[in-house]
TrEMBL record:
Pfam families: FTSW_RODA_SPOVE. Its main location: membrane. It comes from Tepidiforma thermophila (strain KCTC 52669 / CGMCC 1.13589 / G233). It is found in: Membrane. It is a multi-pass membrane protein. Keywords: Cell cycle, Cell division, Cell shape, Membrane, Transmembrane, Transmembrane helix. This is Cell division protein FtsW (Lipid II flippase). It comes from the Bacteria.
Length: 431
């Protein structure tokens, strides 16, 4: 049955759409060479390896999730292969490692596909996922290593693993499962205490404990970017699960309050916000990164100065936190807008998967995956464009970093698995 559906129209459309990302990879490679940029000596292997990973993900979707929507994988491939090109441009010594992480991500994607076909088993792990998120945070605090002032990495087999990326995945599973169970009760009229509607503690306590534990641990680890991302995701999911504007408003207030507390309690948060508000106050210090990013974007103009022809090295962390600035400088605001539209299209595709789901758990889980990627992209793009303060999180699939790439590809695989499950159920004959 699966082999018969492996040649479905959806997979044919997916294969056709994948020609775009593969062409982008080849054009990017040749453009860097034409610009006289000194490419990694193994660039041909890197390009071939990346292309084979994308083709492998397509083959896996044919075999494991043949009925899944065709749009998400080509969109992800577009930004992931752009990431290979940009890392080769910005950090040539790391390009081979990024391609290796993409290969590991291919395995995670395949496992995500399989997991998405077993939503009931995933749902049974709801509270286990929440507990794991807190335990991994504690382990990171005890055994992690501090890099750039944040204690977010653990050494595993000689590699630095950013555990907060895995914690986000655990919290996605927890939030979807918990809200699928409690969302109905929370959406009903609430008991009133002195004329104020108050949700029952039995429904709120598990969510509050896990979120409070995660936020406290992340604050101690100095990862304020992940706190903002987690809170925004939780607010969006609570609103989707309950439809109650009051909960969304309370969550938004919590986000603002967390920002105020972070500004007052953490010097590096205060420095980032001050540099965002007035980078010229300390142009050689805290405002340097923001100013150089602004100059680079202005230099790129509308169409950019050409791939490999800019000076992204003057912007600190150009291959990680500020990779979007490098895109804007060399591909212009037209190219940068195109990248933003890819993330918007991916968010739309993920929410369409959620809309097709047959039960509340699958609907919330698909929405959580889509919103996690979408919110993270919006936060990093907004920070790079100085619309909001920078947060230190990375641009999904594009920035250099193995943990982020592997986890996000696994979540996209999960999204496609859920899509296959929903579509297969919609055409199943009635008993």
């Amino acid at each position: 049955m699966i082999l018969r559906h492996a040649f479905s129209r959806e997979r044919a459309v997916e294969l056709a759409l994948l020609t775009g990302p593969l062409l982008l990879l080849g054009i990017g490679w040749r453009s860097l060479a034409a610009a006289g940029f000194e490419l990694p000596g193994s660039m041909a292997r890197i390009v071939t390896q990346a292309a084979l990973c994308v083709i492998g993900m397509h083959a896996a979707s044919r075999l494991v999730a043949p009925r899944a929507r065709p749009e998400p994988l080509p969109l992800v491939a577009l930004v992931a292969l752009l990431g290979i090109v940009m890392v080769s441009r910005l950090a040539p010594a790391s390009a081979s490692q990024q391609a290796n992480w993409l290969t590991v991500g291919f395995a995670a994607f395949t496992m995500g596909l399989a997991a998405g076909r077993m939503p009931n088993r995933l749902r049974s792990l709801t509270y286990t996922s929440g507990l794991l998120a807190v335990l991994v945070l504690v382990a990171t605090g005890l055994f992690g290593e501090t890099i750039n002032g944040a204690r977010l990495w653990v050494r595993v087999a000689g590699q630095s693993v950013q555990t907060t990326e895995f914690i986000k995945a655990f919290l996605v599973l927890f939030l979807a499962g918990y809200l699928a169970d409690a969302g109905g009760a929370l959406s009903r009229p609430l008991p009133r205490v002195r004329s104020a509607a108050v949700p029952g503690a039995v429904y709120v306590l598990p969510l509050a404990l896990v979120l409070a534990g995660a936020i406290l641990a992340l604050a101690l680890l100095r990862d304020l970017g992940s706190i903002a991302l987690l809170l925004l995701l939780a607010v969006a999911l609570v609103y989707l699960a309950t439809g109650r504007v009051a909960f969304a408003a309370a969550g938004a207030g919590l986000v603002v309050a967390t920002g105020v507390i972070g500004y007052a309690a953490f010097g590096h948060v205060q420095a980032r916000i001050d540099a965002w508000l007035d980078p010229m106050a300390d142009p050689a210090g805290s405002g340097y990164q923001s100013l150089q990013a602004t100059y680079a974007i202005n230099a790129g103009g509308i169409l950019g100065i050409g791939l490999g022809r800019g000076m992204p090295d003057v912007v600190p962390a150009s291959s990680t936190d500020y990779v979007y600035v490098a895109v804007a400088e060399e591909l212009g605001m037209a190219g940068a807008a195109g990248v933003a539209l890819v993330y918007l299209a991916l968010l739309h595709a993920g929410l369409r998967v959620a809309a097709e789901a047959r039960d509340s758990y699958c609907r919330l889980l698909a929405a959580a995956v889509a919103l996690l990627v979408g919110i993270q992209a919006a936060v990093i793009i907004g920070g790079n464009l100085r619309l909001i303060p920078t947060t230190g999180i990375t641009l999904p699939f594009v920035s250099y970093g193995g943990s982020s790439l592997v986890v996000n590809l696994g979540l996209v695989g999960l999204l496609l698995g859920l899509s296959h499950t929903a579509r297969a159920e919609s055409v199943s004959p009635a008993p």
